[in-house]
Design a protein that fits this description.
By secondary structure, the chain is of the alpha+beta class. The protein is 15% helix and 54% strand. The protein has 4 helices and 18 strands. The protein has an 18-stranded mixed β-sheet that branches.
């Protein structure tokens, strides 16, 4: 009996040694095959290490996925380093295998525009069902590459990302904090992402609610105010429909310097491949005047930045409200009911808004009156 126990212990020790010696290359290759099949990508993985006891811990670094093996665009996914943790018991549990947690450092997703259908060699082999209970990532970027080579990408810097129930055949819930570039401000968003579309990543579904806070409009020379916004968006990565409202309680045009409470309700379509935003429509209210605008924020050929082109209408507005935005005097020189219809064009550039704004249209004033009694008396003579 003692000899038998000794033999069993020796055999178990040999098995453990073999597992430790061969786990890294075998699991590394299985991980690469899984990523290749699920993302239709060539996979490069610089480092991969596994610890099997008392539970399974996987560490890796230098991961890159090139969608359909393309070298004419940046890698679809790049990860500086990652750590994963799962219970040994999960290997004997019913599929899918459950990974408790994955933490990722410096995740960059660069989604290329769709291209004409190409012959593919990506063939799904035996399904490896894996479900990640929680995935966290820090210092990330989502980059939507443009259709035209001469245009810049649309970049979203993500401070922290938290996802739950991550699998490649269903949507995962997520919570992310990111910084908006222009105007600078913080975005907090919660929603659903996926399932991942391996044939055309830009068609991967995305939907969420968001809050946008402390956006400094002072980066646009000529205006000021701190904007906040709430709303929702949905669609696919390449094209999102956005609905929301904004509040800027201290909006001002610098030429006048008067602060007014500006509120808007909007819906828009955002083209992720070129960054163009089509507004349909924006409804704004300041003081006692309502404004409606349709149009877009679009890339201008040959120019850096985007041009705002809008059709603006005011019906039964107040002339003194517009004067409040355009005239320095504490008391507006004119009052009255007004209608306005104009083409609004604001090209990019560092000049003051008052210097580059173009308006072309017509307006009418009803029941107009001067606020200065002397001027009013002279106007009646």
């Amino acid at each position: 009996m003692l000899l038998a126990l000794l033999f069993v212990a020796l055999a178990a020790s040999i098995v453990v040694v073999i597992l430790f010696r061969h786990a890294d290359p075998w699991l590394r290759q299985r991980a690469i095959h899984l990523l290749e099949e699920k993302f239709h990508s060539d996979v490069d993985l610089k480092e991969f290490h596994v610890r099997l006891f008392p539970d399974i811990r996987v560490e890796g670094a230098g991961l890159q996925l090139r969608h359909e093996g393309r070298t004419d665009v940046p890698p679809l996914i790049s990860i500086d380093s990652f750590q994963a943790h799962m219970s040994i018991a999960a290997l004997w549990a019913k599929k899918p295998w459950k990974v408790d947690h994955i933490n990722v450092k410096r995740l960059i997703i660069q989604v290329p525009p769709a291209r004409p259908a190409q012959p593919t060699h990506w063939v799904t082999k035996r399904e490896i069902a894996i479900l990640v209970d929680e995935l966290t990532a820090d210092d990330c970027q989502l980059i939507l590459l443009p259709k035209a080579a001469n245009k810049g990408p649309n970049v979203f810097d993500i401070h922290h990302l938290d996802m739950h129930s991550v699998g490649l055949h269903h949507a995962a819930s997520f919570h992310a904090q990111l910084t908006n570039a222009v105007p600078p401000g913080e975005i907090d968003t919660k929603g659903r992402f996926g399932p991942w579309n391996p044939d055309d990543p830009g068609q991967t579904p995305l939907g969420a609610d968001y809050t946008f806070s402390n956006a400094n409009l002072g980066v646009f020379k000529g205006i000021g105010g701190i904007l906040s916004s709430t709303g929702k968006f949905g669609g696919v990565l390449e094209e999102l429909e956005v609905e929301g409202k904004t509040s800027t309680p201290d909006f001002q045009v610098d030429i006048a310097g008067h602060r007014v409470d500006l509120e808007t309700i909007f819906s828009a379509t955002v083209d992720g491949t070129n960054g163009n935003t089509i507004l349909h429509p924006v409804k704004a209210r300041f003081l006692h005047t309502d404004l409606t605008a349709n149009g877009g924020v679009v890339k201008t050929p040959g120019m850096k930045g985007r041009t705002v082109v809008l059709d603006v209408k005011i019906k039964d507005g107040r002339l003194e409200d517009l004067m409040r935005l355009a005239v320095k005097a504490d008391q507006p020189p004119l009052t009255g009911k007004m209608d306005l219809q104009t083409k609004f064009e604001l090209p990019p550039g560092k000049r003051d808004i008052s210097e580059k704004l173009k308006l072309r249209g017509k307006f009418s004033v009803l029941e107009g009156a001067f606020t200065n009694p002397e001027v009013s008396a002279r106007s009646r003579v």
